[in-house]
Design brief:
- The structure is a single chain.
- With 340 residues, this protein is of the alpha/beta class.
- The protein contains 13 helices and 13 strands.
- Helix 2 links the parallel strand 2 and strand 3.
- The N and C termini lie far apart (58 Å).
């Protein structure tokens, strides 16, 4: 492959992204001439595979790679294809002669000259990896509420990569650019992680001496889940993934990772309300703060849908906290069963 970006491999993990894939591929082909662009498809049932195949027929730099790997956890075959496995598979097949690896998620919208900007940021800062901020945007009413929650401290706890601020070195962010040699030396993503594989890899990157730079000029737009059930399932997985990372590396949780444990515990405590009425107070206080925050946010933005951002935040809190705690409960149950 020849061209300005011949030493770059761009990998797009993909599952049923027909709405976003055509524009994304055309943008990457236009903005990164010569880069190898791999669509790692996890068995899409919509037109995603056909879109990638058609793009490969028009542009030799585009490749379609099968990603059949599923998560094997606690003896259960999870039907979700692993994005981490898709990236690893593409690197194994196409990354041998590349200097840079760029991860692009199909469910996001990227600024122009994204790949060039990432490489320039690495050269300017001396960083070994570049991460970028995420701005959540919504189309439907609930999606706008979820986006407002995710853009606020109520929904993210002040996570640096969920807000567009100043550039700085960080311990984690939304994955964008890697040194290919370091990614390969570290073994890539750990495919035992259904989610949070990015933070887990960042921990290993930092341990290897890598410096990770958060580049605010390349913030991307992210489309959150459009229904309450989908949002709950997503954050349930997020909580489980974060707990797995903390347990795997014996890490100390940050305060913003501990606070979401309070809502599910408050709801459990509220079960005792018929016997002890004050048991409802923690849940009432949490709901009042969340709903009040969302109401004020919607009023300030003059957006009726954003007034429900407090509801979206409550879904995120409960799901994340439940997922986090379930790892410890499940792990203890499995260990007890193995001992017996």
């Amino acid at each position: 492959m020849t061209g300005r970006f011949a030493d770059v491999l761009v990998v797009i993990p993909c599952l049923n992204e027909e709405a976003h894939l055509p524009d994304l591929l055309e943008m990457l082909v236009r903005d990164a001439p010569g880069a190898t662009i791999a669509v790692a498809d996890g068995g899409s049932t919509d037109a995603s595979r056909a879109i990638a195949a058609a793009a490969a027929a028009r542009h030799p730099q585009v490749r379609l790679i099968e990603n059949p790997d599923r998560l094997q956890s606690a003896g259960v075959n999870n039907p979700d294809r692993l994005q981490s496995a898709g990236v690893n598979r593409a690197v194994a097949r196409l990354g041998g002669d590349k200097r840079w690896l760029v991860r692009v998620d199909a469910h996001c919208r990227y600024p122009a000259d994204y790949v060039a900007g990432l490489i320039a940021a690495a050269g300017r800062t001396g960083a070994n990896a570049i991460v970028v901020p995420m701005r959540s945007i919504g189309i439907g009413c609930f999606q706008r509420a979820a986006a407002a929650a995710q853009n606020s401290r109520l929904g993210t706890g002040g996570s640096p990569h969920r807000h567009v601020g100043t550039g700085r070195f960080v311990d984690h962010g939304h994955h964008a650019l890697f040194e290919m040699a370091r990614f390969q030396a570290l073994g890539g993503y750990d495919e035992r992680f259904p989610t949070n594989e990015d933070a887990e890899l960042d921990h290993r990157q930092a341990g290897s001496g890598a410096r990770i730079w958060l580049e605010p000029s390349l913030a991307l737009d992210y489309l959150p889940r459009a229904t309450p059930i989908a949002l709950f399932r997503q954050y349930l997985r997020y909580g489980r993934g974060r707990a797995m990372t903390i347990r795997r590396h014996d890490m100390r949780p940050k305060l913003r990772q501990i606070l979401p444990l309070a809502p599910p515990l408050a709801l459990l405590l509220a079960i005792l309300t018929p016997l002890w009425p004050p048991a409802a107070l923690p849940a009432i206080a949490w709901a009042a703060v969340s709903l009040g925050y969302g109401l004020l946010l919607g009023v300030s933005r003059r957006d009726g849908c954003m007034m429900a951002s407090g509801v979206a935040a409550m879904i995120m809190h409960v799901a994340w906290g439940t997922g986090f705690m379930s790892v410890y409960v499940l792990e203890r149950s499995v260990n007890n069963s193995l001992r017996s």
